[in-house]
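Support request, priority: normal
Reporter: lab tech (M.K.)
Component: structure prediction queue

Hi team, I submitted a job for Pilus assembly protein from Sphingobium chungbukense yesterday, and the status page still shows it as pending. I've pasted the exact input below so you can check whether something in the sequence is tripping the parser. The sequence length should be 60 residues. Please let me know if I need to resubmit or if it's stuck on your end.
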Amino acid sequence: MNKFLGSLIAKLARDEKGLTAVEYAVLGAVVVAAIVAVGANFKTQLGAAFTTMFNSIPSS
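Reply from support: The job had stalled in the queue. We restarted it manually and it finished. Here are the results:
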């Protein structure tokens, strides 16, 4: 039984497929967080730009 568990643990330690999936998941989370952070800032700046633009147009 100990030999079986030892070989199973050794096999799992050599297997890097799961590790790659975790790395991609972490990378994806970082990309999403960056997009959300930039998007929120961009929305504020875009709103301010349109407000400035509309306020500078003379009304008839």
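Residues 36 and 42 are 10 Å apart (CA to CA). Helices lie at 2-14, 17-56. Let us know if anything else looks off. Ticket resolved.
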